[in-house]
Design brief:
The protein contains 7 helices and no strands. The protein is mainly alpha-helical and 155 residues long. The chain has one domain: Alpha Horseshoe (Serine Threonine Protein Phosphatase 5, Tetratricopeptide repeat).
């Protein structure tokens, strides 16, 4: 029996208890499978960021140019040029209110009312909206259009 015990102890395998995988882990496998897509996604992200920065720079430049033009505008023609040439800017919207006042003073009363009506309808969030509405109502009252003025004050 002692020889059997010796024989059985000699036959015990002295190899490793568990094997460790030497292949890539799940993250590395994911990167290998999706490398091109990830690179394309990164490049598109960079292009989008650059485009956004350029767009914001152009927009800011347009606003500043329009503001400078409004500051230089001293007469009816110059205010009209700001409105026409710099539409969709805050300065052009502000120029509309000043233009309406200049038109009124120049005797172009119907044009002044039309300009104010256009401003009020196109700029519901402009800081000068309430002032323009009051101005419009006053001008309508001066022309005897009290019904239209009352609509403006209720609107």
């Amino acid at each position: 029996m002692s020889t059997e015990l010796q024989a059985s102890s000699n036959t015990i395998d002295s190899g490793p208890l568990a094997e460790i995988s030497q292949g890539p882990n799940a993250f590395e496998a994911f990167l290998d499978r999706n490398q091109k897509s990830l690179i394309i996604l990164g490049v598109l992200g960079v292009i989008t960021a650059v485009a956004l920065i350029v767009y914001q720079g152009i927009s800011k430049s347009r606003q500043e140019t329009a503001g400078a033009a409004l500051n230089k505008a001293e007469d009816l023609a110059a205010l009209q040029a700001v409105v026409n040439e710099h539409g969709e800017t805050a300065a052009a919207s502000s120029a509309m209110v000043l233009l309406a006042n200049s038109q009124w003073m120049a005797g172009k009363k119907d044009e002044a009312i039309a300009t104010l009506q256009k401003f009020v309808s196109a700029n519901p969030n402009h800081p000068a909206l309430y002032s323009a509405q009051a101005n419009l109502g006053t001008k309508l009252m001066a022309q005897g259009k009290t019904g239209d003025a009352a609509k403006i004050s209720k609107g």
